[in-house]
Amino acid sequence: MSSFEVTKNFPRISRENISVKCIDQKWKNFPKAILPRMCADKLDLYKNFCIRPDDIFILGYPRSGTSRLQELVWIIANDFDFKTLVEYDADARCINFEIRDWSLKWREKTLISSLEDMPSPRLMKSHLPAQLLPNEVWTKKPKLFYISREVKDVAISQFHLLSCSYSNSINFDDYLEDFLNDNVMFSPYRENLWNYLNLPDYENILYLTYEEMSADLDLAICKVAEFLEKSVSDENAEKIKDYLKFENMKARKTNDNKQTYNILLKDLNSNNHKDYNFIRKGVVGGYKNEMSSVYIDKFDEWFAKSKSLNQGFNYTEKF
Domain 52-306: which topology? Predict the structure, then answer.
């Protein structure tokens, strides 16, 4: 029997989303999640996926910096194997958990076979909310990295990516209203963020922010290395910083996700041929140049209400 209630979602921007409610007793207080349509037939696969104790998950809302963080974690976890790093695409070395089989079509593999074939430690990325992660995450407790970012920058970055993905033009104000109404892909933002930042009885997690990585990459490298119980030489630290320079990542084909993007357009029946930049500007506070003062105030008021929401976790219960 399925553990989910799945309904169609009808935002103004895309008809390709679904609304998912986890109905297991443990997760009954958690809100519905808005997910891509292609996730519909894989929800039980996500929940029942077998975890290895040394698995590593990169978690965060889309456009929060997960791609840059996954590269940093991969380098350190794989003992600074820069040769493999530049030979294989980022999404082959760190598989996006919920993007599933369509992102793997060009490699002629399924999600499960790809993950089963990966040597340990497996590095996986996910934008799923806590209630949709594999059940064994909460028993085997692998290492989790969670990255967050100023929500207004997240919204702007996601808007530009979506604008490249759909045939019909997206109205900017309509998109912002949908974001505020928890009606865009991977919503609701506030509840997802709050639940990850307040996981009960889960110590094997490291929290980072996009702004922290931008302001002090040396500190981020030290935090990641310490969490992974690795040491980083000065030489390797300099190599990491050079590799993770924004302009270098943007120019590198192994980081542009172009193969996956082309499959996505085909899956969405989109004939959109706008210039695609998976890595766009990466500027902290860039929303100030694109978002009106009216919407800045709206977002600030909306986000300030986060703590008053029904977050999901019952803190009298333990995992």
Answer: Rossmann fold (3.40.50)
Burial of 283 (0-12, 13-18, 19+ CB in 10 A): middle
Yes or no: say if 34 and 22 are a contact pair by the CB < 8 Å rule: no
Residue 58 host element (H or E) = strand 56-59
Compute the distance between CA of residue 306 and CA of residue 53 in angstroms, rounded to an integer.
Answer: 33
Task: Give the pLDDT band (50/70/90) at residue 25.
Answer: confident
The distance from CA 188 to its chain's CA centroid, rounded to whole angstroms, is 13
Mean pLDDT of 239-258: 74
Structure tokens at 221: 């490298």
CB 204 within 8 A of CB 53: no
Exposure string of 96-122, with b = 16+ CB inside 10 Å and e = fewer, is: bbbbbbbbbeeeebebeebbeebeebb
**Which three-class secondary structure state does DSSP give residue 59?**
strand
pTM: 0.87
301: left (phi over 0), alpha (psi -120 to 50) or beta: alpha
Other C-beta atoms lying within 10 Å of the C-beta of residue 174: 12
Task: Kindly compute the dihedral angle of the four CA atoms of residues 53, 58, 59, 64, in this order, to the nearest 10 degrees.
Answer: 170
Residue-range domain boundaries for the chain: 52-306
